[in-house]
Amino acid sequence: SHTTDDLIFDWEEDVPLVVSDDIELPQLDLIKTEKKDCTQHYSTVLFFAGNFTCLKLTFTLKRRLGYYMFHTYIPTCLIVIMSWVSFWIRPEAVPARVTLGVTSLLTLSTQHAKSLDSLPPVSYIKAIDIFMATCTVFVFLSLMEFALVNVILEECFTMKLKQRITRKKFEESIKDVEVQNDILVINMEKKSSAISRQVKRRKIWALRIDQVSRVIFP
Within a 10 A sphere around the Cβ of 202, how many other Cβ atoms? Predict the structure, then answer.
């Protein structure tokens, strides 16, 4: 390279930079340009290397959000909202709620992979990564919410089944007895009533979780 004694770069005073109007980037807008003189001075303890001429030009670009808004952000938000529809579906409709949640999660993963294809690969976390991760967490939590509701209802079904089996065994045990034991019948009715109240309470809990989720998730 040459020092400033041999070569000097300098910006033209009248028109230092000309940007053609025909040049247009599909996803970026040119906001401004900055020109600087970055002439460097190099020297060491032993000798003086000299000054080396340098010019610096900075382009400030702004990404157009229209493309990403209609192809990434809006479809992704709709997928997340679609997963919340499961809160309005009856808890007993297990196939419908599971299918809706899993489909939303898989569609979201495909949408994330598609959005990464249009961006250059980098080693740091981008804003789109944080947005997609947040949406994925919301969809996953909606699946976990249904899992909790399903566990509560499954316990209700188990308690009902045990109640029916116990009542059937009790009726068979007193069928051949000539004199019916009123005390046993009363105890059995009290036990059945307690189980029914417990089953009803658990159903209310399950429905209450869905009702709370309808407010918290949005």
Answer: 17
pLDDT confidence of residue 30: 86
- Cα-based distances in Å from 100 to 106, 150, 152, 179, 215: 10, 15, 20, 56, 19
What span, in angstroms and rounded, lies between the C-alpha atoms of 52 and 41? 6
Write the pLDDT tens digit of every residue in 131-148.
Answer: 999 999 999 999 999 888
Residue 189 burial class via C-beta count within 10 angstroms: exposed 0-12, middle 13-18, buried 19 and up: exposed
Token pair, residue 212, equals 């709370």
> Which two tokens mark 81?
């909202």
Pairwise CA distance, residues 30 & 21, whole Å:
11
User: Between 181 and 49, whose confidence is greater?
Assistant: 49
pLDDT value for 81: 93
Give the span between the Cα atoms of 171 and 57, in whole angstroms. Answer: 93
Q: Quick one: the chain helix, strand, coil %, rounded to 5? A: 60, 15, 30
What distance in Å separates the CA atoms of residue 122 and residue 127, rounded to the nearest whole number?
A: 12
Which pLDDT tens digit goes with each residue over 186-201?
555 555 565 666 767 7
